[in-house]
Amino acid sequence: MTADELTRPQPSEAAEPPYKRGLMLLLLVANSSMLAVYMGVGSVLLPTQIAEIDPANKVAVLGVVGGVSAVFATAFNPIAGALSDRTGRRNPWILGGALASLALLALLGSAHTALLIGIGWCLVQATMNVYQAAVTAVVPDRIPVARRGTASALVGLGLPIGGTVGVLIASRTADQPRLGYLLLGAVVAGAAVLLTCRCPDVPGTAPAAPAVAVPRRERVAAFLSALSHHDFRWAFIGRALMVLGYFSVVGYQLYILDDHIALPANLDPPAAMAILTPVAMGSMAVSTLVGGFLSDRWNRRKIFVSMSATLAGLVMAVPVISPTWTGMIVFSALNGLAFGCFMAVDTAVVTLVLPRAEDAARDMGVLNIANAGPQIVAPFVASAVVTALGGYTPLFLFGGALSLLGALAILPIRGVR
């Protein structure tokens, strides 16, 4: 056993967190609404809005907007997590982040310049990551260790369910962006109200006495201290590589369908997205449930995570070999299978390698840098790849390479089987 494992509370030694019936379903709704915003806006509404404003430079503009907003996403998530740890409450952050996102999404729908779109999306990313940090911390707060795999699988269903709902809403309202943004904001606000009303905060994580003033350097060091733990660090690296590889391609899918894939005559890119997304998300839902259940049943996590990341890397070759509508359908189905299993089981892995139970939200916030950050950085990175290497084929190969590296990063984790 390593030094990190000796200092980390073991599941058998820690008191089981309080658990409320119906909490897993509410977490599924909360995570689905969050992913509906990320996927609906990021995959359809934002690229469509930018393409209408500046069609000649849409790839570069989307990349800049995504890159700048990454600063807001990566900063606000762990900061909000640390603040919710300090207050010992999650619900005010969940509700406040969701309602602020609703207001900002309504404003984003009225933006008519690239600058205003960029500012609006940065602010939405900030408030949505406040919401995300608090929702993510509910799992280690309130779900018993023995049910983490099942809980992670249900939470993981947020991507196929939320992604499908978000893309369908966005595709149907692509010609009415104000309505699309408003509907997506209403979805996340409604989910926040439901979760906070049905599941009141459980006290116990707030500090017993006022915090002593600590120099900024020490605060930053404490904030990032989880990365000094071997298993957490490798989980962070693996998640970041896998998510970056996935969203580098998915984030540009509307432009890929428009500029790279030979679509049938009766399909335009938004309509094609409305077909591909349910295909991908349906296969993702299956692999999420099966992967989470089997990882609990066999008490094995790493094999599921590494094999699914490997599959995700290999299927990126399908649209390179066959840049057709059929090729995209096959790619979407296989990519959904791989990513769903990875996210479901990897979330369980992460909750089992947290260094300190009392810093769960802060450390999950640090981990969410590897989750939220790459999702928003991906358009910037993808733009650079497409522009520098001349097309979308290099983008698929780049995304595949990142996923394969993510599979390798899981192997050094020692504290999880």
Notes on the protein architecture:
It contains 17 helices and no strands. It is mostly helical and about 425 residues long. Helix 3 runs parallel beside helix 5 and helix 5 runs antiparallel to helix 16 (about 360-390).
Highlighted features:
single chain; mainly alpha; Growth Hormone, Chain: A; globular; disordered N terminus
Write the layout of secondary structure elements.
Layout: H1 3-7, H2 23-53, H3 58-87, H4 91-108, H5 114-142, H6 148-156, H7 158-172, H8 177-198, H9 216-223, H10 230-250, H11 253-259, H12 269-298, H13 302-315, H14 318-321, H15 325-352, H16 360-389, H17 393-410
Helix pairs in contact: 2-3, 2-5, 2-6, 2-7, 2-8, 3-5, 3-16, 4-5, 4-8, 5-16, 6-12, 6-15, 7-8, 7-12, 10-15, 10-16, 10-17, 11-12, 12-15, 13-15, 13-17, 16-17
Q: How much helix is in the residues?
A: over 70%
The first-level CATH class is given as: Mainly Alpha
Low-confidence runs of at least 5 consecutive residues? 1-14, 205-211
Question: How far apart are the termini?
Answer: 13 Å
Q: Which percent band covers the strand fraction?
A: under 5%
- Categorize the overall geometry: globular
Structural domains: how many = 1
Q: Architecture, according to CATH?
A: Up-down Bundle
CATH superfamily: MFS general substrate transporter like domains
Number of helices: 17
Give helix and strand order, one letter per element, not per position: HHHHHHHHHHHHHHHHH
InterPro entries: MFS, MFS_dom, MFS_trans_sf
Subcellular location: Cell membrane
Membrane topology: Multi-pass membrane protein
Organism: Streptomyces mauvecolor
